[in-house]
Recover the amino acids of this structure.
């Protein structure tokens, strides 16, 4: 049995455009984000997708809606869960990234944004995000793939980074260097042997 997993990071949000930390704040797509979502849908047109998953945040849901409309797949089942939400940036959410760097220093902000296990004040590290995303993937999404269903996940830069770390068995050092472009579908072909090898172990 083989199944296909498609991953898409949502299109540019209004706060991405304004260079602000977004995290769990519920900000919709910018006009550019809508265009990117349409392009992503065009790229997946004609592919078989049986079921879709997204976060509880509007920018991911709106991207998914556009993609499914472009593909003519509005009738497939869609599940929304906060486990797929972006990494929470806590006290930084809503702040301009350049102004935050001036306030706390470039080095400190870089550590918050790019380290694996250091969380910003009141927020999550990428490690925290991994330990939130992967159990949901293993317990809820993976059984569909095991049954041969082709799955689409539309989520966020860091929730998808966590998922790609798991699927590709990347180290913390490797994953923090990985960039995930908005609106560019990533495809994984998963066979029974690979799926059966996937087990969640919390990162301490």
């Amino acid at each position: 049995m083989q199944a296909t997993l498609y991953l898409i990071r949502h299109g540019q949000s209004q706060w991405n455009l304004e260079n602000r930390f977004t995290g769990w704040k519920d900000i919709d797509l910018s006009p550019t984000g809508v265009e990117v979502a349409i392009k992503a849908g065009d790229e997946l047109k004609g592919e078989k997708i049986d079921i879709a998953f997204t976060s509880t945040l509007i920018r991911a849901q709106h991207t998914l809606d556009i993609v499914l409309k472009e593909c003519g797949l509005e009738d497939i089942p869609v599940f929304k869960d906060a486990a797929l939400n972006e990494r929470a940036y806590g006290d930084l959410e809503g702040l301009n990234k350049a102004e935050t760097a001036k306030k706390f220093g470039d080095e400190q902000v870089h550590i918050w944004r790019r380290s694996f296990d250091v969380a910003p004040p009141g927020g999550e590290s990428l490690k925290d995000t991994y330990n939130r995303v992967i159990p949901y993937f293993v317990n809820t999404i993976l059984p569909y793939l095991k049954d041969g269903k082709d799955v689409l996940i539309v989520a966020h830069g860091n929730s998808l980074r966590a998922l790609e770390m798991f699927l590709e068995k990347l180290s913390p050092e490797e994953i923090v260097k990985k960039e995930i472009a908005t609106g560019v579908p990533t495809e994984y072909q998963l066979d029974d042997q690979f799926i059966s090898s996937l087990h969640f172990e919390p990162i301490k």
